[in-house]
């Protein structure tokens, strides 16, 4: 019970945060009176105040003299917490994962061509060959490992940790990508060897070719997922 009491403000904060990111409280919304909100949520006013203050610190709420507490105008860009918490709290951002990955990984492949050792480049090629051979089984773990290895061998810890922080969202992104690809057999046949061109470009030190290969890799999935979302195919 004491543990629950200690965690209560955190749980209340997450509940309020969800209301903001899911659109129940749009930007500019004035929060209900404290007494009413604590009653609606069945929590003490102290726990509610603590939760609200945490959201103010995270940049999601603002308190103005005489006008109460309101949701900020741009919650996604005002957010000052951890990125992984934002991704968990804001499902609408999931559709941006591919764009974010392309931004990071386009730079990662170019840096990897410059800074990866010969042994590391060989490892990437071997991993790509193994991954493409078993593509029919969708080896999610190997796929994730391939992309994280490129980020690691880029020599830029910020790129690596930014990609790694996506965590489960990275896994979900890979699953979405491969699911979209398997829904289009005619595309799958032409794109079965999708990792090896990236690894080979890195191996031979072709920065621009590596960047083009990773872009082609992601653009295909962006198109497929867009078709899926718009109902172009089921």
UniProtKB/TrEMBL annotation:
<dbReference type="GO" id="GO:0003700">
    <property type="term" value="F:DNA-binding transcription factor activity"/>
</dbReference>
<dbReference type="InterPro" id="IPR036390">
    <property type="entry name" value="WH_DNA-bd_sf"/>
</dbReference>
<dbReference type="Pfam" id="PF07729">
    <property type="entry name" value="FCD"/>
</dbReference>
<feature type="domain" description="HTH gntR-type">
    <location>
        <begin position="6"/>
        <end position="74"/>
    </location>
</feature>
<keyword id="KW-0805">Transcription regulation</keyword>
<protein>
    <recommendedName>
        <fullName>HTH gntR-type domain-containing protein</fullName>
    </recommendedName>
</protein>
<dbReference type="InterPro" id="IPR008920">
    <property type="entry name" value="TF_FadR/GntR_C"/>
</dbReference>
<dbReference type="InterPro" id="IPR036388">
    <property type="entry name" value="WH-like_DNA-bd_sf"/>
</dbReference>
<feature type="compositionally biased region" description="Basic and acidic residues">
    <location>
        <begin position="32"/>
        <end position="43"/>
    </location>
</feature>
<dbReference type="InterPro" id="IPR000524">
    <property type="entry name" value="Tscrpt_reg_HTH_GntR"/>
</dbReference>
<feature type="region of interest" description="Disordered">
    <location>
        <begin position="23"/>
        <end position="43"/>
    </location>
</feature>
<dbReference type="InterPro" id="IPR011711">
    <property type="entry name" value="GntR_C"/>
</dbReference>
<dbReference type="GO" id="GO:0003677">
    <property type="term" value="F:DNA binding"/>
</dbReference>
<keyword id="KW-0804">Transcription</keyword>
<dbReference type="Pfam" id="PF00392">
    <property type="entry name" value="GntR"/>
</dbReference>
<keyword id="KW-0238">DNA-binding</keyword>
């Amino acid at each position: 019970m004491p543990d629950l009491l200690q965690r209560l403000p955190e749980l209340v904060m997450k509940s309020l945060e969800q209301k903001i990111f899911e659109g129940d409280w749009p930007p500019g919304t004035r929060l209900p009176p404290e007494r009413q909100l604590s009653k609606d949520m069945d929590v003490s006013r102290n726990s509610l105040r603590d939760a609200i203050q945490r959201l103010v610190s995270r940049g999601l709420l603002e308190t103005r003299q005489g006008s109460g507490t309101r949701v900020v105008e741009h919650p996604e860009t005002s957010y000052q917490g951890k990125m992984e918490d934002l991704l968990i709290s804001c499902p609408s951002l999931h559709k941006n994962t591919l764009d974010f990955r392309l931004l990071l990984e386009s730079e990662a492949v170019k840096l990897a061509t410059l800074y990866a050792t010969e042994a590391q480049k060989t490892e990437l090629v071997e991993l790509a060959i193994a991954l493409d051979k078993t593509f029919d089984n969708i080896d999610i773990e190997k796929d994730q490992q391939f992309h994280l290895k490129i980020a690691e061998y880029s020599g830029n810890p910020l790129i690596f940790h930014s990609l790694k922080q996506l965590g489960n969202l990275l896994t979900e992104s890979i699953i979405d990508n491969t699911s979209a690809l398997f829904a289009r057999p005619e595309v799958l046949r032409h794109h079965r060897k999708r990792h090896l061109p990236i690894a080979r470009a890195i191996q031979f030190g072709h920065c621009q070719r590596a960047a083009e290969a990773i872009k082609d890799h992601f653009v295909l999935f962006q198109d497929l997922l867009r078709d899926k979302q718009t109902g172009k195919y089921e």
